[in-house]
Amino acid sequence: MSREPRGRISSSERRPGKAGRAAKNSGDQEPMMAIVHGVLPPREVLLRFIADHPQQASKRELAKAFGLKGESRVELKNLLRELEEEGMVQKSRKSLIRPGALPPIAVLDITTRDKDGELIGRPTEWPEENGVAPAVMIKQSSSPAGRNGKGKAPVAGMGDRILAKIFPAVDRGGPAYSARIIRVIDKRLAATMGVFRETPGGGGRLMPIERRGEEMVIDPDYIGDAKDGDLVEVEVARLGRFGLPRAKVLSVVGSVASEKAISMIAIHAHGIPHVFPAAAIGEADAAKPATMSHREDWRSLPLITIDPADAKDHDDAVCAELDPSPDNPGGVIVTVAIADVSWYVRPGSALDREALKRGNSVYFPDRVVPMLPERISNDLCSLKEGVDRPALAVRMIFSKEGRKAGHTFHRIMMKSAAKLSYQQAQAAIDGKPDDKTGPMLEPILKPLWHAYEVMKRGRDRRQPLELDMPERKILLKPDGTVDRVFVPPRLDAHKLIEEMMIQANVAAAETLEKKRQVLIYRIHDGPTLAKQEVLREFLATLGISLVKGGNVRANSFNGILAKAEGTAHQTMVNEMVLRSQSQAIYSPDNIGHFGLNLMKYAHFTSPIRRYADLIVHRALVGSLGFGEGGITPDEEATLDDIAAEISTFERRAMAAERETVDRLIAHHLVGRIGEEFEARVGGVTKSGLFVTLPDYGADGFIPISTLGSDYFIYDEAHQALTGEKTGLGFRLGDSVTVRLAEAIPLAGALRFEMLSDGRAMPTAVRSFHKATRRNKTPARKAPGTRPPRGRR
């Protein structure tokens, strides 16, 4: 298991080819060359225009868009024919589209919603050889009238089949396309999931698994094969004006009491593929160990893996030595070797299609849903100790100041000298070696730690964003329930591997840019101006300033974090800085990585568990002439879609992982209703307070109506709720005592009651409170109102 660094810390150029495919100069950030009206555009400009304007991609519209007449139209026709013969474009009715792209008009099935509640659809018909069908965001009309002002605009819902006009997406990180509904072809009431509970006299109830879900009645004729305690998928059979909605069981997922049932809820709720098709399993089972073809023999190099103690796949290995060159006194050579997944998973294969469909492995406390079958991930590609394994390696040279002086990539055959855990390697360095690490200490481990110290000088100079947000880990009992929640120590061994992986990722991006090869970058935009302003107003209440406008850098936030360190506001400031950040995504267009403070960054180090890394491996193999398994023109042509898809799948995985942890913790605490806990205010809203139990990492809600008899006013800038009469209130980061009032395990929801008295608010908060009262714009519901339905 490797990392971006390890886990997720969020957080182009075309290969030279026939007739000079599109290319950017190294470091350029312009998406395409300027259009000269009346002149036949270069190939890359034409291809980009077709991708971005599918509704104007007929020959006539293209000629009109570029102002071509006479002989230029003939040249355009010849160029389009040439591109079609090369497979760079294909016909769709009267228009041209990029291979793997959606046509201007398509039939879509609405299958899910994104985190903001927007409907997401996928094409009804999609060739299997093109991989996973692209996601499309459905734009519903905000007007009751149609586009021509007559009649009603069509409205669609979950499960509907629609005819839609397709547009390339404008926003990065979401689906690659958006769509406007032309008409609804077929309506179907939405399917949902819950737990079936029998009721006396036959039939039963559906208990919701979503926080905003509601119970449903299931009549005896509609229970199918469901038994008490089964996780089932249902559709709404009837919605009456009174009483609970009625539902019909469509399928039985399995018993909710069975092993690993909690993670299965998230897997099914988010539509995460978890069963490999027979074709993919067949390819994996038939795979043979890699040969020495196009490989250098590095089996004598003392590369070792350092991973969590329970890791089953090992896709990165490292070693280091002093640079013997007299031109680099005090410098080091660091070698990072990464499993050569591209040798086994070829473009367009069943394994490749399934890997793209998954996008990444998903890690739950009780299971892993892998991107690749175990035959590949845990066997042929895993860098096992003492076993020959194929790899892509990068050898990097650093000066004694930690500046990278150069690097080279190699396709190799290696043999891991040892498999160590983080704790094992750290203990050896700390003077407590065991029988395995003792002989390795001088020749292998100490050179690695020395190299890390050298690289750390460069990291300290670069100043990436250094948030202090402890990551909690859940330890389960054999029966799948929670044993304990703890924060594992952050060791230098973790930081060593993290920094070496980051530098390997940088080297991959730099090499591909130098080769003028298109790739998928890992990009991280800076905070938006709106988020900066919210953070700036909040920090001002603590007497901390934030630079304005485009001058914000990662080290600007580090200065803020340093000022808050050791104060009562430390946790609160870290959380607010985190909230201000954008989300890292994948894109073929580079804008740099704000959080890491790097201009060129691409994921290369985890191809077993991330599809983005596999694409980068293929790009390196192809552009460096490393033999079989390189990137294909078809892949190059669809990198925009692939990047959007895997960014979406990454968010899907993160949501599923988070919800599973919430459900496990709620199950763990369900027997402790009425008990008191020490908590911290982790969120302030108009509706109430979100509180976190530090010992469990669990979040719960306190409705504003239960805070007391005072009239509370919400202050977004100060992240506070303040009582109108008393001036006492609660603020983000406050330590409080709460009582657990309700736990809903299936929904992962906790509701608390506040036991602590509010504290006196600072002067700035009281001033806001008075101004709000003067303007008569209090932002809260009156005491005694019903608590919000979604967070009970």
TrEMBL record:
One Pfam family in the UniProt entry: RNB
Catalytic reactions on record: Exonucleolytic cleavage in the 3'- to 5'-direction to yield nucleoside 5'-phosphates
Subcellular location per the Swiss-Prot or TrEMBL entry: Cytoplasm
Residue intervals of the S1 motif domain: 674-742
Protein's UniProt name: Ribonuclease R
Primary role: 3'-5' exoribonuclease that releases 5'-nucleoside monophosphates and is involved in maturation of structured RNAs.
UniProt keyword annotation of Magnesium present: no
Group of enzyme by EC: hydrolase
GO biological process, one term: mRNA catabolic process
GO MF annotations, alphabetized: exoribonuclease II activity; RNA binding
The keyword Transmembrane helix appears for this protein: no
Name of encoding gene: rnr
Residue ranges with Basic residues bias: 767-779
Listed Basic and acidic residues bias regions: 1-16
InterPro entries named in the record: CSD2, NA-bd_OB-fold, RNase_II/R, RNase_II/R_CS, RNase_II/RNase_R, RNase_R, RNR_Ribonuclease, S1_domain
One term under GO cellular component: cytosol
Alphabetically ordered keywords of this record: Cytoplasm, Exonuclease, Hydrolase, Nuclease, RNA-binding
